[in-house]
Design goal:
CATH superfamily of the largest domain: Type I PLP-dependent aspartate aminotransferase-like (Major domain)
Oligomer: single chain
Strand order of the largest sheet: 2-10-9-8-5-3-4
Bound molecules: pyridoxal-5'-phosphate
Number of helices: 13
CATH topology of the largest domain: Aspartate Aminotransferase, domain 2
Shape: globular
Distance between the termini: 55 Å
Strand content: 5-15%
CATH architecture of the largest domain: 3-Layer(aba) Sandwich
Number of strands: 14
Order of helices and strands: EHHEHEHEHEEEHEEEHHHHEHEEEHH
Radius of gyration: 22 Å
Structural class: alpha/beta
Helix content: 25-40%
CATH class of the largest domain: Alpha Beta
């Protein structure tokens, strides 16, 4: 006899209709959703193995790399972060982390747990690092690995990377990049920019559910793995073993999350279908339209000009407007989810994501008209349709429908 009594069996779960315009997860393309509902096959089935090979090739396109070691780690973006850190770092190794938001700070925590000797350079929220600061920091504190975030989802800051690898390599270090929110949203040239290790996630600009972490490691990073004197601290994230499953051995390590891999393959197929250039242009245009719309109703942006990501906008909440009241209303009346501020920006900004399948003209105008209505109802003086008009003017520049 079971000692715990039988619960009332719930009906099948029916999620409400939502438009996901926050910092992730983003709206999933129907083709990706359908892929997840397909029957399972085994994780060593030759057909599944073929799907993994295809996924690796599609990931190489998304990352713009020829790196052999390109695969999807089981776990979310943070598992990608942890994978890169624990595989490149041995206890006592020095690591320099650039912190200008929550995710840089998370990388410090992960590195400290891996027993790295961490030094940091910091920038206020909404700002980015210039190459000289990194050069100076490496002079003062030589490091084995430098960690930096390309798209800081907590602040909307877009970190230029083109010049950084050279500085890092001159100092004898490896460059590790967080591309969780940047991959397939803004340009990322892993080979051309000589980035040694990159991790990403599936639920931001790839528009796939959360659950896998694409990673890629170049020759220098692979040599570093081979030269390790100690075992990787994490059994689950040890790339030397995971590689053998993704490589020709197909050696069992852990059971791949089959349905998630179906989804990622489909999401990457959509990236290949659209093409990276068109995809970047779509994100850029939608971001620009949203930002123009906000400006038209007097809403400022928290991120420093020149550093603003198109796929994640940090809008300053107008004085006297209650953050939660607006977000609750957007969700209840329009089904729109946006994110709140984090850290020093808590209660001060809304984080609006236009990522992947969500980066569409209809979402820009839907969000702006919903926001206008909310603000007007709260007594803020907002000219009717001003934001939508300004956004539409930007969207019409191309003369083409912005959709996917
Ligand atoms: C979302 C995000 C992460 C963490 O990814 P999870 O999937 O939430 O684990 C890491 N870095 C950045 C920049 C992110 O936006």
């Amino acid at each position: 006899m079971p000692t715990k009594s039988r619960p009332a069996p719930p009906a099948p779960f029916e999620p409400p209709a939502r438009v996901l315009l926050g910092p992730g997860p983003s709206d999933v393309h129907p083709r990706v959703r359908e892929a997840m509902a397909k029957p399972l096959i085994g994780h060593l089935d030759p057909v599944f193995v073929g799907l993994m090979d295809e996924t690796q090739e599609l990931l190489r396109y998304a990352f713009q790399t020829e790196n052999k070691l390109t695969l999807a780690v089981s776990g979310t973006g943070s598992a990608g972060m942890e994978t890169i850190v624990v595989n490149l770092i041995e206890p006592g190794d020095p690591m320099l982390v650039c912190v200008n938001g929550i995710f840089g700070a998370r990388m410090v925590d992960v590195a400290e747990r891996a027993r790295a000797q961490v030094t940091t350079i910091e920038r206020p929220y909404g700002e980015t690092f210039d190459p000289d600061e990194i050069r100076r920091a490496l002079k003062a504190h030589p490091a084995k690995v430098v960690g930096i975030v390309q798209a800081e989802t907590s602040t909307g800051a877009w970190q230029p990377l083109e010049e950084i690898a050279e500085i890092v390599h001159e100092a004898g270090a490896l460059l590790a990049v967080d591309a969780v929110t940047s991959l397939a949203g803004v340009p990322l040239e892993v080979d051309a920019w000589e980035i040694d290790a990159v991790y990403s996630g599936t639920q931001k600009c790839l528009s796939c559910p959360p659950g896998l972490a694409p990673v890629t490691l170049g020759a220098r990073a692979v040599e570093t793995l081979a030269a390790r004197k100690t075992k990787v601290q994490s059994w689950y994230l040890d790339l030397s073993m995971i590689m053998r499953y993704w490589g020709s051995d197909r050696f069992y390590h852990h059971t791949a999350p089959i349905s998630m891999n179906y989804a990622l393959r489909e999401a990457l197929a959509l990236v290949a279908k659209e093409g990276l250039e068109a995809r970047h242009a779509r994100h850029a245009l939608c971001g620009q339209a949203l930002q123009a719309g906000l400006a038209a109703i007097g809403i400022g942006l928290a991120t420093r000009a020149g550093n603003r990501l198109p796929q994640l906008t940090c809008a300053l909440i107008p004085d006297g407007v209650d953050d939660l009241a607006v977000r609750k209303r957007l969700l209840a009346d329009w089904g729109i989810e946006v994110g709140g501020g984090l850290g020093p920006w808590k209660g001060k900004v809304w984080r609006i994501g236009l990522m992947g399948h969500g980066a569409r003209a209809s979402n820009v105008t839907l969000f702006l008209s919903a926001l206008e209505t909310c603000l007007r109802d709260l007594g803020v003086d907002v000219p009717v349709d001003a934001s939508v008009k300004a956004a539409s003017a930007v969207l019409e520049q191309t003369g083409q429908p912005v959709s996917v």
